[in-house]
Write a structure and sequence with these properties.
Blueprint lengths: L1 H12 L18 H8 L8 H27 L1 H6 L1 H6 L1 H81 L4 H7 L4 H105 L7 H13 L2 H8 L12 E4 L2 E2 L5 E2 L2 E4 L5 E3 L3 E8 L24 E9 L2 E10 L10 E2 L4 E4 L10 E11 L3 H7 L25 E3 L2 H4 L2
Antiparallel strand pairs: 1-4, 2-3, 4-11, 5-10, 6-7, 6-9, 7-8, 8-11, 11-12
Helix pairs in contact: 1-3, 3-8, 6-8, 7-8, 9-11
């Protein structure tokens, strides 16, 4: 629980890269993807103030969740005191979680659909931009054509203006008559007439070319105007698409906000479940510490062991002891291990999760010291069944047995078995002998077999240990807070980590 709250706080604070600074403007922080990209990692100096404000915004968004989680944490002691009531609510919590998960999946589907719409609109905008860019190129080309034509027009106009200026400066109104009257012969008259005609013809050709270029330029300008109008139309279409995309973005943000709210609800419910589970495990450990020994039938157990010894059954065990460990629950997976639960509370065994009815086998050759039976196959959190049948609190239907493996002596405890499946006290075991079936009896939230292994020294002490066992269900290795762990440097008796035997 505490790690969950710390993680949520760290998530909000991780984007702070400088100390707290005053915020003078309040940008729109609802586009969290944008701000996460901007404010994660190396933050530009100009963005530090805005990113600090964004971190404050994110903190404010999580304050409600943190408050709800803190309230659950504050209930821990009350839950321990009335564990069965709270444990009975877990199924309801899980049903709510399942319903919320369906809603979350639905919201995620809506978000994905909205994102697909946004992507499609963005593609449409990109295509419009390409179209605009092409129109701009076309406009630039048309403008160059007009500029080139204008240059030609200007050149011809300059020639005409120069010619008119020169003509006006050297000719009178009757310039052609004066020229003709100056002829000295008919041949000279004809020559002058031909020259004047050539000049007039040149003027007409020049004027015709000028008019042609002006007409051409007017056509080019009309084409340019058409292209500009087309580009403006495309720009308007693009702006319309952008507006549509903003609407979709707003809808997307709404869906994302709803998704976060539902995810927060799931976090709160899961935290509630975890607190109940933790409280149940803590309470079980406390009870087991208080019931370390079984006294009711220890004399019967010792008598049984003495009879087996007299019959020579016990002395044969070290000679037929297995040379390796036998895997206790084939097909099972490790749902919890040593030395702690995910919530941080001490856990002294290896939980082999498997369906109810799965056979549990002896991990070595030995003898069953104690067997407790009578608990319902399905217990539940807070169900401390087991002690009333000569077993450990919360262990449900259980077996404690002694084995020799690789020349060493070990005490083994197997808990939470199916009703009527534990083998009886005094049963001689070979490695791989069935000792019961998986259940969920006692303080259990699901089908599994909890197994603890305690190292007891040299295997040659097997017979003597069996005959003199004092009923200590921890085989002298202790329980919560006072246990002896082999990997902490303790010698026999000490608890060994089952993972070192069966893997992770």
């Amino acid at each position: 629980m505490k790690r969950l709250m710390n993680a949520l706080t760290a998530l909000s604070l991780c984007m702070l890269t400088v100390g707290t600074m005053p915020v003078h403007a309040e940008p729109d922080y609802t586009d969290t993807d944008y701000w996460d990209d901007k404010c994660t990692g190396q933050v530009a100096s100009g963005d530090k103030e805005a990113c600090n404000a964004y971190a404050e915004y994110m903190n404010s968004q999580r304050e409600n969740l943190q408050s709800r989680l803190a309230e659950i944490e504050s209930q821990r002691n009350a839950i321990k005191q009335d564990l069965e009531t709270y444990a009975a609510q877990i199924d309801g919590y899980q049903a709510q979680i399942d319903e919320l998960q369906v809603l979350i999946d639905s919201k995620q589907g809506e978000i994905d659909a909205k994102q697909a719409e946004i992507n499609a609109k963005q593609a449409e905008i990109d295509n419009k931009q390409i179209e605009i860019d092409n129109k701009q190129k076309e406009i630039d080309a048309k403008q160059k054509e007009i500029d080139d034509t204008q240059a030609e027009v200007d050149s011809i106009e300059d020639k005409i203006k120069t010619r008119m200026k020169n003509s006006q400066a050297s000719m009178r109104f009757n310039k052609y008559l004066d020229i003709l009257m100056g002829a000295t012969s008919f041949e000279d008259f004809l020559r002058i007439i031909t020259g004047i005609s050539s000049i007039a013809k040149y003027d007409k050709t020049t004027m015709d070319e000028l008019m042609r270029l002006i007409e051409k330029m007017n056509i080019q300008k009309a084409q340019l105007l058409t292209v500009k109008e087309e580009m403006e139309r495309v720009k308007e279409e693009m702006e319309a698409v952008k507006a549509e995309m903003e609407v979709i973005r707003a809808e997307l943000q709404t869906q994302q906000n709803e998704l976060v709210a539902r995810q927060d609800d799931v976090i709160v419910l899961q935290a509630q479940v975890q607190v109940v589970v933790d409280a149940a495990k803590e309470k079980e450990a406390e009870f087991r510490s208080q019931s370390a020994q079984i006294a009711a039938n220890i004399s019967s157990i010792n008598a049984t062991m003495a009879a087996l010894a007299a019959a020579g059954e016990l002395e044969n065990i070290p000679r037929i002891a297995s040379s390796g460990w036998y895997f206790p629950v084939p097909g099972a997976y490790r749902s919890a291990g040593t030395w702690a639960y995910p919530g941080g509370y001490e856990h002294l065994g290896y939980d082999f999760a498997a369906p109810v009815g799965t056979t549990i086998y002896s991990i070595g050759s030995g003898v069953v010291l104690s067997s407790a039976n009578g608990c319902s196959t399905y217990g539940g959190l807070g169900q401390m069944c087991g002690y009333q049948f000569g077993g450990a609190y919360g262990g449900g239907n259980q077996v404690h047995y002694l084995v020799v493996v690789n020349g060493s002596l070990y005490g083994v405890a197997a808990y939470h078995m199916q009703l009527n499946s534990p083998v009886a006290s005094g049963t001689i075991l070979a490695a791989g002998t069935p000792i019961g079936q998986v259940g969920s009896s006692g303080n259990s939230s699901g089908p599994h077999c909890h197994i603890e292994i305690i190292y007891l020294g040299d295997g040659s002490n097997f017979e003597n240990y069996a005959k003199t066992w004092n009923g200590d269900l921890a085989f002298g290795a202790g329980w919560q807070g006072s246990n002896r762990k082999c990997d902490a440097g303790y010698g026999a008796p000490c608890r060994i980590r089952p993972e070192t035997v069966f893997g992770y």
